Amino acid sequence: MRVKANDILATLLAMGDDVQRDNLMRFFKTGKGEYGEGDKFIGIKVPDTRMVVKEAKLRVPLEEIEVLLDSEWHEARLCGFLLLVEEMKAALPKARQVQTTKAERREEIAQFYLRHARKANNWDLVDMSCPKILGPWLLYPKADGTMPDRQVLYRLAASTNLWEQRIAMVTCWMLIRADQYDDTLRLATILLPHPHDLIHKAVGWMLREVGKRDMPTLEDYLDAHASEMHRTTLRYAIEKMPENKRQSYLCSSARTVQPSNQQDIIDYGT
């Protein structure tokens, strides 16, 4: 049985909590002049939104997911993106299937996501969607056996939209897990001069992920670029290094930014 977006929205609205709403609006910087200015929250914790997704997954057509992504409510958009993550999971080839299995469906989901990327207009919406939607799409062949063009990441990085730029960087998480680092390092270099703290953190986060799998590659990159990095980026990148190396790289950094209390790397289990 298909599930309608309006039914999902009604369920979400019934779950709202005023205290939680106020907390979320502060946490996600919805005040005047802040990056989430004007965003509206129902007041639902992520695990509760995930419960709604679990009940509805694979029964919500893309046109209904689009209704959720067009919603004024943050949690409705999150629900839409998480439903899209489930669609991509279902479109991945199973063990012993050829890798082109369901390639057309993966392409459809990825292109749908890209058309609606700006609806992921806060860091949680970006971080919980792009690695598990665009990441797998880029790692599996298309129906004709060729690989999807990763230039899409560079077009996103060149966007004037903060969230599309963050999508470009955070999508690399899945490439890193496949031991493919080149695009991460190139995109990091492109985004190093970016003025926004949320990009500084995303770049540093992805560099740290590279280091967790291949520390020499990270060290080579830092040897070449640490002096160009904002302090936040560098601190994220070197977090897992021994103290003596951390201090060495910190001393080499010439750029500083004001610290932020905003945590932009979320626990996907919460």
What is shown here, in short?
The protein is mainly α and 270 residues long. The protein is 60% helix and 0% strand.
Would you give an account of this structure?
It contains 16 helices and no strands. The model is unreliable at 256-270 (pLDDT under 50). The chain is mainly α. The longest helix is centred in the N-terminal third of the chain and has 17 residues, at 74-90. The chain starts with a helix and ends in an 18-residue tail after the last helix.
How many β strands by DSSP?
Answer: 0
Overall average pLDDT:
93
Question: What is the approximate shape?
Answer: globular
Q: Cα distance, first to last residue?
A: 28 Å
Computed Rg: 19 Å
Write the layout of secondary structure elements.
Layout: H1 5-14, H2 18-27, H3 46-56, H4 62-69, H5 74-90, H6 103-115, H7 123-127, H8 130-139, H9 151-157, H10 162-170, H11 172-177, H12 182-191, H13 197-213, H14 215-225, H15 231-237, H16 243-252
Helix pairs in contact: 1-4, 3-5, 4-5, 5-6, 5-8, 6-8, 9-10, 10-13, 12-13, 13-14, 13-15
Question: Any key phrases for this structure?
Answer:
single chain; 270 residues; mainly alpha; disordered C terminus
